[in-house]
Amino acid sequence: GEEEKREREEEERRKKEEEENRSSEDHDNRILKFSERFGMAEKNKGEGNELFKDGNCKFAAERYVKALGHLAKLVHIESTMKEEDFAQAKALKLTCYNNLAQCFLKLEAWSKAADNCSAALELDGANAKALFRRAQALVEQKELEKAAEDCRRCLEVNAGDKAVEKLLEKCERGIKAAEAKQKKMYGKMFG
């Protein structure tokens, strides 16, 4: 019914996103064994980490996208994959989405950062890093209600996280200020 339809649409959207995430010059359509394809993805992630440490966020992001491209190609060999292969691939995908989000935060590409966090949260709905980073991106996009919600969810997972508490306070102050401003405006209009 309705639930299945939504899941199908979600799956379609995710596949489309993975397609788009692949770089345009990616013509590697070889059907490789899991260990080879996964190894290539891990290598790209490692390169991304090194580039990120050196402050090269743009190039780091490209490596993470490449890693995700390799992981997306595992779809061709899913029938031969073992359960631990799926778990490893999922964990690496999650890391790449989180790392991409961090790159895009540094590059001030807020919506790309938020989108990659959302992709990570589709894999693990309680991922504290993804929730916090998405909240940071949402604050920059002036989406304070949504950001506050992500902060609260993050604190359910990671109680007492000072950085998250601080961001939540910032959101709540911003929401209050906006409400006060609106009240004042309506007061003038109907006063």
Automatic annotation (TrEMBL):
SUPFAM superfamilies: TPR-like (SSF48452)
InterPro entries xrefs: FKBP4/5/8-like, TPR-like_helical_dom_sf, TPR_rpt
Region annotation (Disordered) ranges: 1-30
Superkingdom, taxonomy of origin: Eukaryota
Protein name as annotated: Peptidylprolyl isomerase
Lineage: Eukaryota, Cryptophyceae, Cryptomonadales, Hemiselmidaceae, Hemiselmis
